[in-house]
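[step 3/7] fold_predict: job queued, chain A
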Amino acid sequence: MKDVPGSAGWKYRVEGPHVDGVNNDWHVHVEKGKVKGAERVTGGKSHKKTLDSAGVPKSVQKNVKKTADFKKGLEKQEKLDKERKKVNKLSWNQIIAKPSVLITMAALVGLTVAKLLTFPKLIFG
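[step 4/7] structure written:
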């Protein structure tokens, strides 16, 4: 963790998205003693809290948001959001343009259900 400029005793770090599927955005951790807060760089909860809810003073939050690390995290988050939108658009376009993908998925699900109904031992042992 790095010292927060202009805020004696406070430390911060900026982290990228976690793989666990819960915290999928860039976020910042700020702490001093028992006060430990986290927040997405775009605002909002990260690790089930915000900097406000954890009791991090507004002046410290302001100083953290001025750091180069925070600004880099914000830029990376904006790029990530653009890529997510691009992928989402492509995914829907692919499904609409190629209904064969959707038909294949439906067929596989149908075959699986049919097999399970034919052989209930697979479910009930």
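[step 5/7] annotate
The chain has a mean pLDDT of 84.
DSSP finds five helices and four strands in the chain.
exit 0
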